[in-house]
Amino acid sequence: MKTRIKEYRARYDLTQEDLAKKINVRRETIVFLEKGKYNPSLKLAYDVAKALKTTVDELFLFDEE
Amino acid sequence: MKDKITTILGVGIAVCVIFTLIIYLGAKESIEEFDLFSILIVLILVITSIYLVWDRVKNLKAGLPAQDERLKLAGYKAGYYGFIAAIWSSIISNLGYNILFDQELRGGLVTAAVVLVSGMVFMISFIYFSRKGN
């Protein structure tokens, strides 16, 4: 799974810590999300998308096999 | 508030364990090999606990939560492996001792082995899963 979190974060000039505070998670979780190393719950995915003013579909890209 | 209470409890427990260890070592006339092994495991558990508490405090000070869904998931996975380790260590400790020394292991020692081994497995698994992701 790939994500565009870093791209959107840069768009709004947010650090990983800023985004983590907005959605009430640890900074390491944002790091793992950006690297695609953690599959978030639906709620977390929604919270991240809402914080970055976009949709879950736009933010999380699944590889189609 | 809940995170702060949990962190304070963690620190309190670590301090109590260290204090108990010091009293135990002070009361012992001689330290056997098994004691050294147990002390080493206890120290490892205490050090990793202190690391985890320090990590939580660092996040709390930064205004971030001490624990989020990712860390909870890591905890559940580590708990599962700790549980499996507890079961296997209870069987292997008694059986292994019986095979090697042709004697039954005392109940207290089996309990100690289970607690220490499952604790170690939990700690190592938790740190691994929290760093690796899923």
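Chain A has one domain: 2-59.
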